[in-house]
Structures are given as C-alpha cells and as structure tokens.
Amino acid sequence: MSSNSAPKVGVIMGSKSDWPVMEHAVSMLEHLGVAYETRVVSAHRTPDLLFDYAKSAAERGLQVIVAGAGGAAHLPGMVASQTPLPVLGVPVESKALKGLDSLLSIAQMPGGIAVGTLAIGKAGATNAGLLAAQIVGLQDTAVRNAVEAFRAEQTQKVLDNPDPRPEPEAE
C-alpha cells in the first residue's frame, strides 16, 4: 500500500519479473499522491486469484486497475472481463519479441471488453500511472491538482532549458 488511505488504484503484474517495469507506474502514483496496492496476479498460474481480485476490486474501493504482462499478456484482458473498472494494460518487454507480442496481445481485445493499452515498457508503465491518476482525479480534487502541477513542472523544465546541446564541462 502507498499510505494509510484506502487504495484507489490496483497495480498488478503477471510475475515478479515484471516489477522493474511496473515500478514506474507505482513511482508515478506515489509522486502524485494516489493511494494504490500492488501484487502479483498471474493469469495462467493463479486464475482463481485473478478472478477474485478483479471481481472484488470495485467493492474494495479501487477505481482503476493497471495490469502489466509480458509474452502472451492475458492478464489485462482477463481482468477487464471480470470487472466494470477501467483497466490499463502495460506491455512488458519480452526476450523473444521485445514486447511486440505483449503489445499486440493487449491491444487486440475483442469488441465489448475494453483495455486501454499503453506503450511497451517503462514509458507505458509511467503513463499508466499518470492516466490512472487522471481517472482518480475526476473525483479527487487533490489528485487532479497534483496532475496539473506535474504537467506545469514538465512544461517549465522545457521552457527553462531550450538549448538542446549538452552543458559545457567545467575545466
């Protein structure tokens, strides 16, 4: 858990090996002050846990689920099939196909089972955390304000550093 407050976002992944990617979603949620929970929920190795997690998510107070998976990447779609909550899928890079297999698996959902699919890897996980915060921010003013402040900081960093050349090294 991120804090003593009830989690609003569930961050799940198919295995512990997905953590180096999914920790970026968690970092973004922490930066924006969004309460979350995180755990391994495998679509293939723990299907009963997956169904229980997804079916109980809304009644437990979650508003969004971020699901990261690699390879066959069934986790986001299977979770989406079991909950009315928005599910954001993060394709985790695989060794064999560099995450393209994961991306296609998550993106190719049949009509009627929606999964928001993000980019492969770190950027996708970071944006999944941000998008989850934006969804929570629809009902939570403090989170919406944190998202707006984050965006303003990004803008100011670009405006403060318009020269793309590296800084000269001090002699």
TrEMBL record:
Tell me if Hydrolase is a UniProt keyword of this record.
Answer: no
- MF terms per GO, please? 5-(carboxyamino)imidazole ribonucleotide mutase activity; lyase activity
What GO terms describe the biological role, i.e. biological process, of this protein?
Answer: 'de novo' IMP biosynthetic process
Q: Which reaction does it catalyse?
A: 5-carboxyamino-1-(5-phospho-D-ribosyl)imidazole + H(+) = 5-amino-1-(5-phospho-D-ribosyl)imidazole-4-carboxylate
What InterPro entries does its record include?
Answer: PurE_ClassI (IPR033747), PurE_dom (IPR000031), PurE_prokaryotes (IPR024694)
* Keyword Lyase in record: yes
Query: What EC number is given for this enzyme?
Result: 5.4.99.18
Where substrate binds, per the record, is at S15, D18, R45
Name the keywords, alphabetized: Isomerase, Lyase, Purine biosynthesis
Q: Which residues form the PurE domain?
A: 7-158
Kindly tell me the pathway this chain contributes to: Purine metabolism; IMP biosynthesis via de novo pathway; 5-amino-1-(5-phospho-D-ribosyl)imidazole-4-carboxylate from 5-amino-1-(5-phospho-D-ribosyl)imidazole (N5-CAIR route): step 2/2
**Described purpose of this protein according to its UniProt entry:** Catalyzes the conversion of N5-carboxyaminoimidazole ribonucleotide (N5-CAIR) to 4-carboxy-5-aminoimidazole ribonucleotide (CAIR).
Q: PANTHER family from the xrefs?
A: PHOSPHORIBOSYLAMINOIMIDAZOLE CARBOXYLASE, PHOSPHORIBOSYLAMINOIMIDAZOLE CARBOXYLASE CATALYTIC SUBUNIT
NCBIfam families attached here? purE (TIGR01162)
Instruction: Tell me the protein family, please.
Output: Belongs to the AIR carboxylase family. Class I subfamily.
Q: What is this protein called?
A: N5-carboxyaminoimidazole ribonucleotide mutase
The species this protein was found in = Vreelandella sulfidaeris
Q: Which gene encodes it?
A: purE
